[in-house]
Design a protein that fits this description.
heterodimer, A: mainly beta, 4-stranded antiparallel sheet, B: mainly beta
């Protein structure tokens, strides 16, 4: 199993550009999440999904969109990139929402908006 | 929202030394988790704690769920070079129904182990 795979690893965007961060998992997990990690800060939840076709906002959703057309994929879309979106983005998945179902994280996408 | 204070922010220790880090919260949590993040990778779960007062070990790592439910500690004994990384605590608030989407993360402790 590859686990959670994120692409690209690095990206530089100009202000106003758009891009999609890809995330796929091969563990047949129902739950998927997008977090951002800023220097000196804890991970913040952007969006999450409890299954194909279902998404919901997390703590910091503004400026982002997601979709979940399949169980495996959970892409994160930035429509109009802003410098405040410079961050490291982590996708994660879990089998269920329960306390005994740990999060499995991808290796992250480092995004710089200039 | 919930806030977690994690300290210290960074530590430089000699190989073989023990290290301790902690997280405190203004709110009561019913679950405490400790993650490690290696450079260029995502966080990996080290230890999960579900009960106040619980003390759990994973090899050279030991973590405790504070009696007040507002804090947790992680100790690493006899550090080795591969312990280098960022250690994060995370908590789930009381009555959150065990939801991973309701995790609050600490800001991390950057650990450097000197040979």
């Amino acid at each position: 199993n590859a686990g959670v795979t994120q692409t690209p690893k690095f990206r530089i965007l100009k202000i106003g550009q758009s891009m999609t961060l890809q995330c796929t998992q091969d563990m047949n997990h129902n739950y998927m999440y997008w977090y951002r990690q800023d220097p000196g800060m804890g991970l913040k939840l952007i969006y999450y999904s409890v299954g194909a076709g279902i998404t919901d906002k997390g703590e910091v959703p503004n400026g982002y969109n997601v979709s979940r057309s399949t169980t495996e994929d959970f892409p994160l879309r930035l429509e109009l990139a802003a410098p405040s979106q410079t961050s490291v983005y982590f996708c994660a998945s879990s089998y269920s929402d329960g306390r005994n179902s740990p999060l499995h994280f991808g290796n992250g996408t480092r995004l710089t908006v200039t | 929202g919930q806030q977690l204070n994690q300290s210290p922010q960074s530590m430089f220790i000699q190989e073989g030394e023990d290290v301790s880090m902690n997280c405190t919260s203004s709110s009561i949590f019913n679950t405490w988790l400790w993650y490690k993040q290696d450079p260029g990778e995502g966080p990996v779960l080290l230890i999960a704690l579900y009960k106040a007062g619980e003390l759990t070990s994973n090899g050279r790592l030991t973590a405790q769920f504070g009696i007040t439910r507002k804090d947790s500690f992680l100790n690493i004994s006899a550090s080795i070079p591969s312990d280098v990384g960022i250690y994060f605590c995370a908590g789930q608030a009381l009555y959150s129904m065990g939801s991973a989407r309701q995790l609050t993360f600490g800001s991390g402790t950057q650990l450097t182990v000197l040979p």
